[in-house]
Amino acid sequence: MAHRDFAARRSSNNKKKNKKKNTNVLIFLALFIVLVFVVGLYLLKNQNSKVSMQQAITQQEKAQPKSVLPNRPEEVWSYIKALETRTVPVDNNPASVEQNMRLTEEQRQVLIQIERDQKAADEARKLAEQQRIEDATRTQSKKTEDMKNTEAEIVKSESIKKQDSQKIESEKKVEQIKTVNNVRDSKKFGLQCGAFKNRAQAENLQGRLQMTGLNAQIQTNGEWNRVRVASFDTRELAVQAQSRAKTVTDCVVIGM
């Protein structure tokens, strides 16, 4: 089997790769230089064309002459003088004047129709105004009548309410009088002639009152013995009994 030198083979391969890389770099640099050269030429060409164009425009402007405006024309007003010397033709012939003032039949009919239309319009306006005034007057009178009716109804209702209130008040008064009379009728009156702690004194006074014809009674409440005369239907009867009891002692009218 033949012996192979792998180390020498590897070094030769590396040299080939380095040569290939260097070649690529040189090619890239050459292309870049060519591109820069082309761009520079293009820019120089454009700049030269702009400069030459500007010079041509400047020379053309110098070669053209400047425009000069014409002088202002003088205005001549001739109609003022013509008006000063102009004469108006006047026809003083009476026949011509009458002929000019005379109207044709058609014009006369038109004027008559215009006058009729004007009169009709005036009459219609007057009628409308009169109708409006009548309507306003009628409306106002109706409002006034309604107000009067309303006021009359209000017065009538107030009078009815017043009568009702008076009637109710009178009925209340009658009821109060009846109640007072009923109370008076149901209430009894009597006389209290004395109050004693000693019952013997109370019995003594009772006997003396009975001797005058009064219905004297003793009412005991606790330690007090009250001598009373009962009972009377009205205060007048109690007052009469009080005057009778004055011969014995002073009594007081009380309600029972």
Automatic annotation (TrEMBL):
Gene Ontology MF terms: peptidoglycan binding
Keywords (A to Z) from UniProt: Cell cycle, Cell division, Membrane, Transmembrane, Transmembrane helix
Residue ranges crossing the lipid bilayer per the database entry: 25-44
Gene Ontology BP terms: cell division
Source organism superkingdom: Bacteria
SPOR domain sequence ranges: 183-256
Coiled coil: none
Region described as Disordered: 123-171
Protein name according to UniProt: Cell division protein FtsN
Originating organism: Haemophilus influenzae (strain NTHi 3655)
